[in-house]
TrEMBL record:
Lineage: Eukaryota, Fungi, Dikarya, Ascomycota, Pezizomycotina
Regions annotated as coiled coil: none
Keyword Oxidoreductase among record annotations: yes
Family affiliation: Belongs to the short-chain dehydrogenases/reductases (SDR) family.
Alphabetical keyword list: NADP, Oxidoreductase
Alphabetized PANTHER family for the sequence: 7-ALPHA-HYDROXYSTEROID DEHYDROGENASE, SHORT CHAIN DEHYDROGENASE_REDUCTASE FAMILY (AFU_ORTHOLOGUE AFUA_5G12480)
Top-level division of the source organism's lineage: Eukaryota
Entry keyword annotation includes NADP: yes
Pfam families in the record: adh_short
Protein name: Short-chain dehydrogenase/reductase SAT3
Stored PROSITE patterns: ADH_SHORT (PS00061)
GO molecular function term, any single one: oxidoreductase activity
InterPro entries registered for this protein in UniProt: NAD(P)-bd_dom_sf (IPR036291), Sc_DH/Rdtase_CS (IPR020904), SDR_fam (IPR002347), Sec_Metab_Biosynth_SDR (IPR052178)
Length: 304
């Protein structure tokens, strides 16, 4: 078989993965994609055991392993780490994907006559949201992602220790990798979800860069994903607000001025991306950010 055949280039055969937020949405799709394509163990972490079990039920028995974990608690992360370490010698890839949107924090929309809300109305809308709601979003998305990565470092290092000695002219297998889910909200001021969410994802994007730099001497790669709009539990209300039917993956689901490809992200879009990142041909990704947004980052302001 040629080394350039797709089955070789995109193979994730035998990989061991940990996925936070694996009980729903993008994390569940990631788990399924890895399971279907030959990964040997996939640990899905989250707070809701029933959701994790539902993900596990989508694959052959024992391939996807649910582990209860709240990423905002060091004790819970340590317990989850120990539970994973009891069932595998190493972890090839860690997806720090768990996150929350929190309450929408955005100024009221323009009035019917097109005039802006007064500054008093803007203040009323935003100042009424308790500070704790803002902090919670930071706790889960930023602090939680950071401590998730720290918790799993030993098992990532163990994956590197299993790599064969390099042979001249032979491509070495990928080093261990962390993939953190950020968002286009983190670097586009025009995506008006929420101040807290957008700021948290900007911080996550910076976290990806900092960790990548600081873990590179240990051969642990850190990369990021910045999705645009994908149908999930988190995004459900955004879809409903916009009057979008179903998962929004067919052409014409969204106005072109919002998403140039006129649709939301699909499970194929995210599954193909992460399979590549985890596969042989993703092994040269190091400290980079993968944008999957249908061109939204370059679109004009919108209200979803
Ligand atoms: N969908 C989109 O359009 C979109 C766009 C850009 C970025 N993202 C990012 O993609 C990631 C996945 O989101 P999603 O869209 O798939 O939404 P989702 O279905 O709501 O998934 C979020 C996951 O995070 C987990 N989670 C939340 N708080 C947690 C905590 N304290 N400890 C452990 N797990 C926790 C949830 O599980 P439990 O509730 O069971 O804990 C849930 O499975 C998030 O980081 C999100 O910000 C999504």
């Amino acid at each position: 078989m040629s080394n350039l055949q797709a089955s070789n280039l995109f193979s994730v055969q035998g990989r061991v993965a940990v996925i936070t937020g694996g009980g729903s949405g993008l994390g569940r799709t990631m788990a399924r994609a890895l399971a279907i394509n030959g990964a040997s163990k996939i640990f899905v972490l989250g707070r809701r055991e029933d959701a994790l079990r539902d993900t596990a039920a989508l694959a052959q028995d024992g391939l996807i392993i649910p582990i209860k974990c709240d990423i905002t608690s060091k004790e819970s992360l340590e317990a989850a780490y120990q539970a994973v370490a009891a069932q595998t010698t190493h972890v090839d890839v860690l997806f720090a994907n768990g996150g929350i949107l929190g309450p929408l924090m955005r100024p009221p929309p323009p009035k019917a006559d097109g005039s802006l809300p007064s500054l008093a109305e803007v203040r009323e809308e935003l100042f009424n949201i308790p500070m704790a709601e803002f902090t919670k979003v930071m706790d889960v998305n930023v602090t939680g992602s950071y401590y998730t990565v720290l918790a799993f470092l030993p098992l990532l290092e163990a994956a590197n220790q299993r790599r064969p000695a390099p042979q001249i002219g032979v491509l070495s297998p990928p080093t261990a990798q962390v993939v953190i889910t950020s968002s286009i909200a983190g670097f586009n001021r025009k995506v008006p979800f929420s101040y807290a969410y957008n700021v948290s994802k900007a911080a996550v994007t910076h976290l990806i860069k900092s960790l990548s730099t600081n873990l590179s001497p240990y051969d642990i790669r850190v990369n990021g994903i910045a999705p645009g709009l994908y149908h999930s539990e988190m995004a459900e209300n955004l879809f409903a607000d916009g009057g979008i039917q179903g998962s929004g993956i067919s052409d014409g689901s969204f106005p072109r001025e919002m998403i140039p490809l006129t649709r939301g992200g699909s499970s194929e879009d995210i599954a193909g991306l992460i399979l590549w990142m985890v596969s042989t041909s993703g092994g040269y990704l190091n400290g980079t950010m993968m944008l999957t947004d249908g061109g939204r980052i370059g679109s004009v302001p919108n209200t979803y």
